[in-house]
Each structure stands twice: as structure tokens, then as C-alpha cells.
Amino acid sequence: MSKELRLLNLICVLAAIVFFAFAVINLFTSGTVISTDNLFITMVCLVMALIFAVNPLLYLKSEGKLPLPGLKGATAASAPSQLPGSKTPPLLDAKGRAVPPDVRAIVSKLGTQTKEAS
């Protein structure tokens, strides 16, 4: 499966390069760049290059080989913070966010009541 995927990504990258090259060649060889026909051909080539480049880029992102500049800071900022002195892990809601202190107090009170009743 890995070889087929590698071949598919190689074909997509080559097609993206070819369409991008067509767009650049069209810009340099045409007499007037701002005509309707030349702009249409250039945009079609650029969109086709983008379509073929998306698949390998998404594959690299899913494998973790594509470094995204804003991704590391966003994951660190969205992670729930824990107080330096506390030894218990933070209480999280269903979406993974830290719950407010009043809700945490209610949950801890309910937890002690159920332990006493048992």
C-alpha cells in the first residue's frame, strides 16, 4: 500500500508542477497578459496545479512531516493548564476544555458523597 501511495503522490506532484509550468509559460509567451483569454488559461492552470498539490500536502500533514508554523503554538495554547502546585489532573468537559472552578467544586462534592454512601 505504501508504494502505491508514494506513486500516487509522485504523479500528483508532477502534474502540479506541469500545470504551474504551463501557467508561467503562458504568462511569458503571450503578447498581452491582461487579456481575458490569457487570464482564463492562467487561472485554469493554477487551479489545476492547486488541485493536484492538495493530496500530497494533506498526506504529509497527516504523517506529521509537514511543519505548519501556527500549529505548535495553537495546540499548546488550547491545552488545559494545570496549577503548578496541584497533583490532580485538570477536570475536562466533553470537548476537552478545562471546567470552571465552581463546577469542579460541585463535582468533587458529589464524588465524596457517593463514596460515603457506598
Shape: elongated
Oligomer: single chain
Major sheet: none
Number of domains: 2
Please give the count of helices.
4
Distance from first to last alpha carbon: 54 Å
Q: What fraction, in percent, of the residue positions are helical?
A: 55-70%
The tally of strands reads 0
SSE layout and pairings?
Elements: H1 2-29, H2 36-63, H3 71-78, H4 101-117
Helix pairs in contact: 1-2
Compose a concise summary of this entry:
The chain is mostly helical. It has 4 helices and no strands. The chain is 69% helix and 0% strand.
Can you characterise this structure?
- This protein is mostly helical.
- It folds into two domains: 2-67; 88-118.
- The protein is 69% helix and 0% strand.
- The longest helix has 28 residues, at 2-29.
- It is elongated, with a radius of gyration of 27 Å.
- It starts with a helix and ends with a helix.
- The relative contact order is 0.08.
- Residues 74-79 have low confidence and may be disordered.
Q: What attributes characterize this protein structure?
A:
mainly alpha; 2 domains
